[in-house]
Amino acid sequence: MDAETIAATIARRMRELREERGLSLHGLAERAGLTKSHVWDLERGGSRNPTIATAVAIATALGVSLDNLAGLTTAQPCLHPEGMRIACEVDALLRARPAQPVQGGEDV
């Protein structure tokens, strides 16, 4: 599969998944940390070469794997898409902050 085909599949899958989840363009953009115009451009196929970071952000916001978004697999996550999205957001928040010692406990 070439890059243009993958970009077209991402555009098609974005719209399908966004609509399945009842999200507006603005809602998906907000979840993915992108602008509404960027999401719209990607979804209509105007951007034929999304960055990996953008594709990962969209996949995370939609609660699917990057492989699923790109049409490379039909495997669905074992979590509900909203649960997957929340889990990814929590994971990102936890990774962004320094580790804190457990309060009131002893080091093991």
> Can you summarize the main beta sheet?
none
Helix coverage percent of residues?
55-70%
Regions with little confidence, pLDDT below 50 for 5+ residues: none
Instruction: Count the beta strands.
Output: 0
Features of the shown structure:
elongated; 108 residues; mainly alpha; 6 helices
Written account of the structure:
With 108 residues, the chain is an all-alpha fold. Helix content is 60%, strand content 0%. It has six helices and no strands. Helix 1 runs parallel beside helix 4.
Topology:
Elements: H1 3-20, H2 25-32, H3 36-43, H4 52-62, H5 66-69, H6 81-96
What would you say about this model in short?
This protein is an all-alpha fold. It has helices at residues 3-20, 25-32, 36-43, 52-62, 66-69, 81-96.
